[in-house]
Amino acid sequence: MLKKRHILVILIFFALFATKAQELDTLQSDSFLESVMEDFASTIEGDFDYTEFLEEYEYYLQNPMNINSPDYDVLRRVFALTDYQIYELKKHISMNGGYMATLYELATVNGFDNKTIYRILPFIKVEGVSNPYNLKLKNVLKYGRNQIFLRYQEVLEEQKGYSFASDSLLEANPNARYLGSPQKFYAKYNFNYQNRVRFGITAEKDAGEEFFKGTQKQGFDFYSAHLFLQDFGIVKSLAIGDYHLQFGQGLTLWSGMAYGKTSSITGIKKRAQGIRPYTSADENNFFRGIATTLKKKDWELSLFYSNNRIDATVDTLDAEESYIASLQETGFHRTPRELAYKNNLNLQLFGTHLSYKTEFSRLGFTFYQMEYDKDVQGRISPYNQFEFTGLQNSGFGLNYETYIRKHSFFGEVSMSSNGGIATLNGLVTQLDPFFSISLLHRYYSKDYQTKYSVGFGESSRNNNEQGLFFGTNMIFHSKLTLDAYVDLFSFKWLKFRVDAPSQGVDYNLQLNYTPARYSSIYLRYRHKGKSINITDDMHLNRVYANEKRNFRIHLQHKPYHNFTVKSRAEWSSYQVEGSDATNGFLVYQDAQYNFSKIPLNLSARIALFNTDSYDERIYAYESDVLYAFSIPAYYYKGTRAYLVMKYQIARNINFWFRIAQTWYADRHTVASGLDEIDGNRKTDIKAQLQIKF
Questions:
Q1: Which of 46, 140, 182, 592 is most buried, taking the most CB atoms under 10 A from its CB?
Q2: Distance (Å, rounded) from C-alpha 376 to C-alpha 592?
Q3: How far apart are CA 191 and CA 174, in angstroms?
């Protein structure tokens, strides 16, 4: 049953819909964005903050890029255009007097099929080439844009961590209950002037954390702030406060999200941004300090320094000496145990990146050194005995990329201070306008040690892996394309839950049909084979091969300008060597409707799912409030539904409300530990207010 205060909150939110408002500012769906996030979620097998990924898309949705004076790095990095597509676009514009008269001309540019064109259309425009406003204080104040976000979310059912616990129970086990309330609060302010002057503050309280009392008298559990300046003469960028570093192909130094193995083969080549502001709420994966990039003609020099405290588990050798047993990256501080992890470890990092860049080539060198204030020892097991221990680590890396006659070469080689090596080398070649292939080889030694690495690979960490990736994209027709890849990989040493050297294969086929701008369908088949420990009757771990197969059909259609439907059916199968296969399926129907007479947008889904176990889980992107994200794994047997409402209260004030509920037909409890719910359903609500000025 809903509590009275929850009903009151919901009624207040619905009452806002009676307010007189202006015309609705709608958002266009981007299936490419959804696909990338789904693939990423299924790869990392855990929660990830996609805020910054979504912010870039939203910025260019609200401020479309002039295709006659484009930022080609953004077209590569954000919208995943290939080097061949960029080359052909430049050639087309140059051959037509440096000006594209209409976006319809994109259909005549080699390499631009319907799928690509429709994907980027919402984010580009055609205008004459004009100079930006001069960077004067009055222009910054006049034309800069401010935004405030306030977000609330909560699980309505009572979870074990919020239930009554007696004093005697808490005295015996202080971690038997969460210290704080079940509400999650998020607040954010940002200022942006043409992406050249940016300033922001982010604050977050997770569910279960205290708020303005007890252990959190300062209010929110996490605060972040940044000032970011771009294109000030010789200063290409300057970050003060919290920031990201992204260089090369992600082997030496890269924080934040990066494209990985996705259904589109364009993701194998990373597009480094260098220094960028940190605007997310991940409490550990960023740098705090100062960083700058200086540019002189074709040369760029980046310098950076960071001094940040991160969460870690402290253990003791004796009464006077302590060490770090493990790093904690959840960001949760809900119980005395979790609070004991908070800010235990100081991490300082400094370094440089030097690069030489021409129109179609880049060569870069990266160096960094990091130092902890406590000895990091970890809990040594056979599989992780080559991981970093100690106080200091450093990394050196050399990266390159060049484009020669439809062939794009790229790579990076990196070495950690202990001598561990990681290298990858790739090629994307356009054999003709309708056929391209991609090759990538990687070798990551078992003793390569780095904290900030997101190079292409099967594992989330770039060590103990060798692999060869082959992918292709075929354009049979402007409306019909095929994406396919096969990835062969091996692990020469043990891995977590794999007590022997092992190998595997991952291949994917996706057929895309885009008959019109507002209609599309794709079929996907994916197969992945790896190894895993299975405990036998003698309680011994034995390594067995396992295979997972997924088949998906996805349809999207917009029959009217204000109405969109999406349908999906997906089947999954999981089989361990010597055992019968287990199966699962997911089917869902989405509908999105924009009212024409009132500024109201509705998005809804009804989903049915049934899997034999967690192993057959299926990930699916869900609509959410702006800059939030939901990519849950569907497993067990049940039904899930959600409704998202966006209402424009005034020209510069938007309001979102989301409610989602999962019913389980084969469960009497939901989740586990302190998140356990006594019942077969879980209901989440979320509300967000955006104020722009």
A1: 592
A2: 50
A3: 42
For the purposes of burial, counting CB atoms within 10 Å of the CB of 11, is it exposed (0-12), middle (13-18) or buried (19 or more)? Answer: exposed
In whole angstroms, how far apart are CA 94 and each of 70, 99, 123? 13, 7, 21
- What pLDDT, in 10s, does the model give residues 536-594? 777 788 899 999 999 999 999 999 889 999 999 999 999 999 899 999 999 999 999 99
CA atoms within a 13 Å half-sphere pointing along the CA-CB vector of 668: 0
Pairing mode, if any, of strands 65-66 and 124-125?
Answer: parallel
d(CA 601, CA 649): 12
For residue range 354-412, what is the model confidence (pLDDT) as tens digits? 999 998 899 999 999 999 999 999 888 899 999 999 999 999 999 999 999 899 999 99
Question: Closest Cα partner for 586 from 574, 567, 573, 571?
Answer: 571
> Which residues, at least 6 apart from 18, have a Cβ–Cβ distance to it below 8 Å?
none
In the predicted model, what is the mean pLDDT of residues 528-533?
Answer: 94
211 Cβ neighbours under 8 A, 6+ residues apart:
180, 181, 183, 185, 205, 219, 220
Pairwise CA distance, residues 287 & 309, whole Å: 10
Per the listing, tokens 């034309």 go with 143
Cα–Cα nearest to 442, from 430, 460, 455? 455
Give, in degrees to the nearest 5, the angle at Cα 495 between 544 and 314. 140
φ and ψ at residue 21, rounded to 5 degrees: -145, 175
Q: Which two tokens stand for residue 355?
A: 């690069």
pLDDT value for 24: 32
**By C-alpha distance, which of 251, 243, 273 is closest to 77?**
273
Judge whether residue 45 has pLDDT over 80: no
Neighbouring residues of 46: CB distance < 8 A, sequence distance ≥ 6: none
β-bridge pairing 222-232 and 274-277: unpaired
Quick check: 362 and 356 in contact, CB under 8 A? yes
Mean pLDDT for the chain overall: 89
Is residue 367 helix, strand or coil?
Answer: strand
Residue 617 · residue 635 · CB < 8 Å = yes
Instruction: Tell me which of 113-117, 119-123, 373-377 is least confident.
Output: 113-117
Q: What is the 3-state secondary structure (H, E, C) of 80-123?
A: CCCHHHHHHHHHHHHHCCCCCCCHHHHHHCCCCCHHHHHHHHHH
3-state secondary structure of 633: strand
Instruction: From 62, 93, 65, select the one nearest 77 (Cα to Cα).
Output: 65
Q: Is the pLDDT of residue 7 over 60?
A: no
φ and ψ at residue 524, rounded to 5 degrees: -135, 135
Alpha-carbon gap, residue 270 to 76, rounded angstroms: 9
Q: Could you tell me which of 29, 27, 25, 39 has the C-alpha nearest to residue 119? A: 29
Output the pLDDT for position 43: 63
Cα separations in angstroms, 498 against 384, 388, 542, 609? 11, 20, 8, 30
SS3 548: strand
Residue 17: per-residue pLDDT: 39
DSSP state of 630: B
Give me the pLDDT at residue 540, please: 83
Listing DSSP states for 450-503 in one string gives -SS---SSSSSSSSSEEEEEEEEEEEEETTEEEEEEEEEEEESS-BTTB-S-EE
CA distance 486 to 466: 14
User: Distances from the Cα of 20 to the Cαs of 150, 193, 549, 597, 651, in angstroms?
Assistant: 21, 30, 51, 11, 11
Q: Angle 31-44/51-62 helices, nearest 10 degrees? A: 170
Instruction: State residue 11's pLDDT score.
Output: 44
| Torsion on CA atoms 280, 282, 287, 290, rounded to nearest 10 | 30
Sole residue written with tokens 């800010």: 343
